[in-house]
Amino acid sequence: MPAVPPWLAARASISAGKIAVECGGERVRYAELERRVRAVAHRLRGLGVRERDVVGVLLGNGLPFVEQVHALAACGATILPLNVRLTAAELAVPLRDSGARLLLHGRGALAELAASAAEASPGLKTALADPLPVRPDSGGAARSAAASAFDASGDRAIVYTSGTSGVPRGAILTHENFLWSAVASAFHLGVRPDDRWLACLPLFHVGGLSILLRSVLYGTAVVVHERFDPARVSRSLDADRITLASLVPTMLERILDARGDRPAPSTLRCVLLGGAAAPASLLERARALGFPMAPSYGLTEATSQVATRPPDGDANDAPAGLVPLLGTQLRVVAADGRDLPPGESGEILVRGPTVMRGYVDRGAASHGALRDGWLHTGDVGSLCADGSLQVAGRRDDLIVSGGENISPAEVEAVLLQHPEVAEAGVAGVADPEYGQRPVAWLVPRGGCAPSADALRDFCRARIAGYKVPVAFRCVRELPRTASGKLLRRRLAQDAEGGART
Question: Over 80: is that where the pLDDT of 381 sits?
């Protein structure tokens, strides 16, 4: 692949006066962002960062994170974005696994967390992510740090999976992966000069990181929220001329609760909804208020989006499922690798230019996931006759009870139709007679939990008897990843906890 200039430097040269990022009341134009990034890149060089180094970043959402993303690319280094909610022991795993040489961190609790993680990572240096007061135009070093070209096929980021089905693994994503992801997303959703993409997802997650990178390629603005607050997001949708937003279903539901009956603002043209399967009732509720929903299926190993339902298609003409993005190929196969006909469920396979290079230092894992150019996702779904995709859930989440297969997502969707259920999670619990039995964990709406008998009757009227949970547990919150995915594995592990209803 030919060498290309850093994306931010190229964007600043043609869109200097356009807004690049808004965060915490501060508006930063592309020229100013590029100036800041040159200063940060100059400092990183001084800290010893060189091409192909892996550098960990332990920062919450904010301008410092944005600056580090682009500065590390300018240095030719690979960013390792880290989940700020992890413990020191959990952080040490990706730091050692990836061979990171430096860990950049924030102040306060993040500094303490970084120091503890470094103790378990021999040879790792730590540094505060705040840039030094360097004047980037005063010397050639700062300019050269930001102007060096890079190989488009080189590594841009190592993003660790959320670990819903085992030990987290680091997906190696290249510049080319992110470029194709941005192109395919634009082909699918369109790009407008005045687009303003709301980023309230964690930026260390592939969904949040992709927003930053695609917006630079488009020359559009990102509105970054330091954390997710449904009332604040609701106000931002109305006041900040947001045109696109990336959310997960739990976020969407809380935003709708915060808004009440207030319809979506006319400026909003797309809500990209991913991270987990969205109940039909939630989508209907959002659409009734004018929210232009674009349900999406994606995964870290494919640089976020894989297949998305366009938000502006006529309901009668829209495809039955999610449409593969430009350049993406899909297959659904049986356990023996045989391609299944439309309508039959099996494992989803993905091939295309957004698929990762492989996993970090895990030859066997990469070989198992990438076979003959196809990414074996471990997710279950089916293809429609028109080539679109229906997603059922994780294969590892499938409950096998008395020889019958039960999809937890299907049971959760039924429970979420109950007016007194705010959130629902279903997992299989070991049973000596049936092998597994489904158990449900519920977050009641308004603190009033339905009775077990009422919930069983409600489910039996809508799904087969073998799918009805044998027990219901009332909890304050469900375990989720930072990106909003339900940790069903943890539910099963914690089967003895929670109060029965």
Answer: yes
